[in-house]
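Lab manual, section 2.4: Encoding a predicted structure.

Procedure: take the sequence of the chain (354 residues), apply the prediction step described in section 2.3, and record the output as structure tokens. A sample record is shown.
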Amino acid sequence: MTSKFLIVYLLILTAFGSSELKAADWKSLISLNGSWHFTVGDDPVWADPSTDVRDWDLIQAPRAWEHYYEGYNGYGWYRKNFSLNWIPETGMVHLFLGYIDDADEVFVNGQKVGQSGHFFPNYETAYNQERNYLVPVSLLSKTKNVIAVRVYDEGRDGGIIRADKFGLYYDRDQAQMAFDLSGTWKFTTDDFGDMHNPQTSDEQWDEIYVPMKWESQGYADYDGRAWYRKRFSLPESLKGEELYLVLGKIDDYDVVFLNGYRIGQVEELDTYSRFQRSNAYSLYRIYKIPSNLLKSKNLLSVEVEDIFQDGGIYEGPIGIMKEQDVRAFREKIRWQEQNWGWNSFFRDLIRLFD
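Recorded output:
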């Protein structure tokens, strides 16, 4: 059996063996599996791309570092250089690092792009959270990129343990956005009153990445209400178009305001059922934007209520779509829901022979 036919066989097993929807249409930019430079200890200078790490050990990742450092608990750093053949022109790409035991900070070309768990003195583990960090494409170049991962392990297995996806990925659905709204948003869990009024200050709010669950961004185990804000200027080329706001998936319930006026909430979606309220987190949020509300400068405000477990605007795509693109996107979603694993199976099969 040739390798390609073996892969086809495995894809068939995957299509029939799983009822789980493929959440996003991922394009792999680079795999990070394999050898990484590694050292025990802790020094913030190791996040600097210019730091010489040639005398560090080489270990395989993902794999628990106990395979190389039996019984070691404490701090460790991973470093890896990589190049890219293709980079999107704008927006963000996703850095998947699997499961890291226990807490981590991640730097790309010296810039911090994410953290899960907490280090001492307020230690908190995140060993059971899959790492998915957003990386602005402006940070990347085709050559001479460096990723650095700081890890603290409190006990048992440590380091980058395992991963389903391990590398940089781009969400093809994000490319359908006429205007990209992914990236850094303002965020708070404190109700200051009149939260959707553009005149209400958000200068003291935190910054958070969207799309990404808030548990991975310093709000572990938080259940309740939170508020997101994004200010943006509408390009001249989109004025006069029929436009839709796409907010991916939100866990669990949301109400959305544009320039102080409510434009939608999950309960108003055609796909929402009050008899299956617990499934609200799995619905794509697509809201029509009233043309009279858009200005040159705009404020998007999203109130989210999380009931339990993960919370927030956790999955893309995120942005503004033109009417014709929304129709195609909705058809794709319907196809996914009706055919389960079939659509991703045939897509992967076709790409195998491209």
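Check your result against the sample. The chain has a mean pLDDT of 90.
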